[in-house]
Amino acid sequence: MRAWRLVLALAVVGVAVIARGPLEQTMQRHTLVQLPMLFGAGLLLGQAVLRRRGAASRWREWNLQGVAGLLLVSGVLMTWMVPRALDAAVEHLAIDALKMGSLVAAGGIALASWQMASAIVRTFFVGNAAWMSATIGMLLLDAPVRLCTSYGASDQRETGIVMIALTIAAVLGAAVYMLYAPRTYDAQAH
Amino acid sequence: MAARAAIGLVGSAALVLAMLGTATRGFSALTTDTARALDVAAKPVLVPEIALLDMHRTAHTLRDDRRSTIVDFVYTRCLTVCSALGGIYHTLQSEIGARGLESQVRLLSVSFDPAWDTPERLGPYVQVMRADPAIWTIATVADTAALPTMLRTFGIRVIDDGVNGFVHNAALHVVDPKGRLVAILPFDAIGAALEVAESHARVRPARR
């Protein structure tokens, strides 16, 4: 029934792996296309696997309110925003595999934890992610030097601009969602 | 219940710290360049014995038996960072003369674009840079196959800029008379580079 999610998730991961060369050629494609693709594939995988087997509930006690899981997810996202880690992923296949695996896993963990989280916990982590990406965006835009040895200075600036724009759009979108759909937002928390 | 939740939280936090610590070389470096400079400072790296050719096709290597060598990597068609480096090297050359360090420190610019930068094409570049051959050697690799090893040793990454040129990181690399890469400094750290180079020149070359 949810097989299409599984198929789609695997297809997205497949594209991220096969098109590794072109996707990692510029910082924009790497950070704004490939990384979200992998995380999104993790979300889809989570939907396909977790709901079917109710696996997430087994971890409920260890992952109270989803806080431990969402913390781990934030950590994975932060790690791959470190310029040195991004360079290493471009240069070493094994580290790139680690990057891809951890991001897909982070997507799955994010979904499972999100379902357990209350509105307060959700707001905290979404707010934290927005703050983080806006800060990184401004850093990329303003840095006087190249931060990645794999990417050029103009690529870095453009990535910063797009990252800030996406953050603003996401925050506005979340605000609109919370204002106009408060009931469903509360209902999904339980 | 509460104990499991606490373990989950602490375990997750520990994992996050471990990941970030690994990515940042133990919270000491955010960029590849910084990490490389710290690695080299902590543990000098032996540079490969690679044959280099100057404009007269005279052979050189990355190290000099007597003097410390301040090495940088350029390509002569470069209009951006290499011109800046050229200016820095010109200042270094003047400083070496002014401080009387000719017998202790030398300068070496190596092209990472041997396909274009043949020894013959280095001539005009040497003239533009007003390089004094007693202090500053501008050379290209004799064998292209040796290029990747050399660039990897120095932590130089050259990427295509899409408009027939290259994007590359720039720094001052100090190689001591024993052929060890002992320091990587920011490309405008003229004073610091001279001090490090001079201090290593005093080390007596190993007897053979």
Overview of the molecule:
The complex is a heterodimer of chains A (190) and B (208). Chain A is an all-alpha fold and 190 residues long. Chain A has one domain (3-187). Helices cover 82% and strands 0% of the residues of chain A. In chain A, helix 6 crosses helix 7. The mean pLDDT of chain A is 91. Chain B is of the alpha+beta class. Chain B has two domains: 2-30; 44-201, Glutaredoxin, CATH 3.40.30.10. Chain B has six helices and ten strands, in the order H-H-E-E-E-E-H-E-H-E-H-E-E-E-E-H. In chain B, the strands form two sheets. Chain B has an eight-stranded mixed β-sheet, with helices on both faces. In chain B, a hairpin with a 4-residue loop joins strand 9 and strand 10. In chain B, 40% of the residues are buried. Chain A binds chain B through residues 59, 61-64, 67-69, 71-72, 74-76, 78-80, 82-85, 87-88, 91, 146-153, and chain B through 1, 4-5, 7-9, 11-13, 15-16, 19-20, 22-25, 29-35, 155, 157, 159, 161, 167, 169.
Largest sheet of chain B: 8 strands, mixed
Gyration radius from CA atoms of chain A, angstroms? 17 Å
Number of strands of chain A: 0
| Average residue-wise pLDDT of chain A | 91
From N to C, what is the helix and strand string of chain A? HHHHHHHHHH
Q: Write the CATH architecture name of the largest domain in chain B.
A: 3-Layer(aba) Sandwich
Rg from Cα of chain B: 20 Å
How many structural domains does the protein architecture of chain A include?
A: 1
**Global structural class of chain A:** mainly alpha
Number of strands of chain B: 10
Can you tell me the CATH class of the largest domain in chain B? Alpha Beta
